[in-house]
Amino acid sequence: MPSSPEAISPKQVISSGLCIGCGSCVGQLAGGDAKMALNRYGQFEPSGSEAWLNGKSQAMAQICPFSPRATDEDHLAEVRFPTAPSLDARLGRFEGNYVGAVAEEDYRANGSSGGMVTWVAAELLRQGLVDGVAHVGPTPDSDGFFGYRISRTLDELCSGAKSRYYPVELSGVIETIRNEPGRYAVVGIPCFIKAISLLRQTDPVLQERITHTLGLFCGHMKSARLVESFAWQLGVDIDAVAQPEYRLKNPERPANWYTAHLALKDGTTRQQDWWHLCDGDWGAGFFMSSACNFCDDVMAETADIAFGDAWVEPYSSDGRGTNVVIVRSPELHGLVESAMAHGRLELEAVDAEFIAHTQAAGLRQRREGLAYRLTWLRAGLRPRKRVKPSNALPLRRKAIYRMRYGISAWSHRVFWAARKLQKPNIYIRWGHQALSAYQGLTYGRGWIGKLVSRLGLSGRDG
């Protein structure tokens, strides 16, 4: 990697569609001249003076996780985990891989999947390895439903469990960590953990104080409009919603049967299974951030430990939830193995192939699909990824990636128009039509599926 990368500006990253809204640039470079704000599509991006937004710097090039000049995941992981005994192109470096769940207390019942994320964070606090954990939780006193916060007690930490498909940003916790001495763990999706890793390379204070990172496997980031769409389709206004829940857990139903649940301010609730919603097929890409189209890290390769859902049978049918876990640091590997030996964790060792199989769809999108998207003409900064550009795909696969990209882009625009006109049905009708076309092409459903089959393009792999 060059020691002096070419300077870039926040505005270049935004206009190139590469801003994921992590807030690292504001947290590290703004100096009070900027803040993170939701744009018209409900996505975070830096907001500030034109001088700051257009100001080019090598620092920006070094710390933005989607900067084409930044250190990539392979090099970051090589420095962070130099003694890791195993390396897989899909998983990254690791000490060991596991599938299972937390056995003790209510971590599994009250958390996402098998409860492993909250358990590991709690164990770091219990053992005095960290003084605080930066993680996402409900933020009832803010304009949004969720945001980053720092928990310093087990009660605070556990109240933030469960999945949050909502935009968040790191600038506030970066500032807190810099101003308040202590040891911190940060929980986040792959690009956020990469941002933390890049910040630690350039900031000695953050390098000293952020001692642990916990990564979450990621399909893509959603905008704030997803929960607003849920509200529209459940017959309520977003202003009536007190708290959303994206994956209502039910031990009697398969874990991959997501249920959207809205607690309303009047004390009532609304809920609906995702498959009845016009944007309920995750793979179709509704409200996906543009930057996610240029990510090649599914499994948080720069995190000390990473967690995902076990999306294979028999685990995906277990409504209690099951985690897959990749342990990268020797310290956390010892912590996990000790807990297994004492019956606190019910985990079984698995190989890299098993982990990759649980995330097959995400890997296709981030490897095969990314290779194809890198061949498209684009303006602005050109992503520099570990995946090489390739056009060598069957016609149907190309069509799927084109359609998914189009749904991602147009869902933001159509929803914005429907919101502006106060006519939700504009978006809802469009969403149903877009979903029908996508599922016809991808899964062979409906008249589009019949046409795809007649043309010899049939198949069922999203």
Mean pLDDT: 93
Termini separation: 35 Å
- Cα-atom radius of gyration: 21 Å
> Uncertain regions: pLDDT < 50 for 5+ in a row?
none
Helix vs. strand class:
alpha+beta
Strands across the major sheet, in which order? Answer: 7-6-8-9-13-14-5-15
Helix count?
Answer: 18
Number of strands: 15
Q: What can you tell me about this protein's structure?
A:
The chain is an alpha+beta fold. It has helices at about 10-15, 25-30, 50-55, 60-65, 75-80, 105-110, 115-125, 155-160, 170-180, 190-200, 205-210, 225-235, 330-340, 350-360, 360-375, 395-420, 425-445, 445-455; strands at about 35-40, 45-50, 85-90, 90-95, 95-100, 130-140, 145-150, 185-190, 210-215, 240-245, 260-265, 270-275, 305-310, 325, 345-350. The strands form 4 sheets. Strands 7-6-8-9-13-14-5-15 form an 8-stranded mixed beta sheet, sandwiched between helices. The chain has a 3-stranded antiparallel beta sheet with strand order 10-11-12, with helices on one face. The mean pLDDT is about 95.
Question: Layout of SSEs?
Answer:
Blueprint (H helix, E strand, L loop, with lengths): L9 H6 L8 H6 L4 E5 L5 E5 L1 H5 L3 H6 L9 H8 L5 E3 L3 E3 L1 E7 L4 H4 L5 H11 L5 E7 L7 E6 L2 H5 L12 H9 L4 E5 L1 H13 L1 H6 E7 L8 H9 L7 E5 L13 E6 L4 E5 L31 E5 L13 E5 L2 H12 L3 E5 L2 H7 L1 H14 L21 H27 L2 H20 L2 H9 L8
Parallel strand pairs: 6-8, 8-9, 9-13
Antiparallel strand pairs: 1-2, 3-4, 5-14, 5-15, 6-7, 10-11, 11-12, 13-14
Helix pairs in contact: 16-17, 17-18
